[in-house]
Write a structure and sequence with these properties.
2 domains; 3 strands; 6% strand; three-stranded parallel sheet; 7 helices; mainly alpha
């Protein structure tokens, strides 16, 4: 699939934008392999950043911003080709945060987003709920505060092309009120149960399709055996 996308990019003469949340998890060898298909292009990387969530752990390759900047910064080589878009989040407004991030990507790449809306784009099932992004339990406040400051220091010292307010996004996170936290967790549990139900239905559908394909293959094999 990636090779096909690269071939399409080579056929055009315009700026090519690829947006995929899972790219932040790519290892250095995976990044090198991806960029091999774009040899000859001037590659820029846009990293959208929200405040660290309550359970972010320092040094995690998938969630630690410093790790992401290290891997992709080494790949593009020039810090000005790594663009950091800081996205302010509001509790209960995940769609607004997604639109804000998308507008930031558009500003960096040079295209308007008014006619390229995200309404029909499904949100990644692995994306953490933005509604809970700012709610930090008291026992995790010090750790999250330290992580946020580390991220802010790295952005400010990295020489990257920065869009947005570092202090507003990576300032001291508010500590969650126990009552509000219980309501957030209840809402997250409800969303998780709905997602499990959706995945279970999807799994049942796929199992039926696989069983049907197996029956057809066995029937075709029986018809072809006498011929062979």
């Amino acid at each position: 699939m990636w090779a096909r996308m690269c071939r399409r990019a080579w056929k055009g003469r315009q700026t090519v934008v690829v947006s995929q949340p899972l790219l932040c998890r790519a290892t250095r060898p995976e990044i090198a392999l991806l960029l091999d298909g774009l040899a000859g292009f001037e590659v820029h990387v846009v990293v959208t950043v929200t405040s660290p969530h309550a359970w972010t752990a320092p040094g995690e390759p998938e969630t630690d911003l410093c790790q992401v900047l290290d891997r992709w910064g080494a790949a593009v080589r020039k810090p000005e080709r790594l663009h950091v878009v800081l996205v302010e989040t509001e509790p209960g407004q995940p769609a607004r945060a997604r639109q804000s991030a998308w507008r930031g990507v558009g500003r960096v790449a040079g295209f308007g987003t008014a006619s390229l809306r995200l309404d029909a784009v499904p949100q990644s099932a692995t994306a953490r709920p933005l509604a809970l992004a700012r709610a930090v339990p008291p026992e995790r406040a010090a750790v999250v505060r330290t992580i946020a400051r580390t991220w802010a220091d790295r952005i400010e010292a990295g020489g990257y092309d920065v869009h947005g307010d570092v202090a507003a996004v990576l300032g001291d996170p508010p500590v969650a009120d126990p009552a509000d936290r219980a309501a957030d967790l209840d809402r997250a549990l409800h969303d998780a149960l709905r997602e499990i139900e959706r995945l279970a239905r999807r799994n049942d559908c796929l199992e039926q399709q696989v069983a049907q394909t197996d029956r057809r293959r066995r029937g075709l094999r029986r018809r072809l055996t006498p011929v062979a």
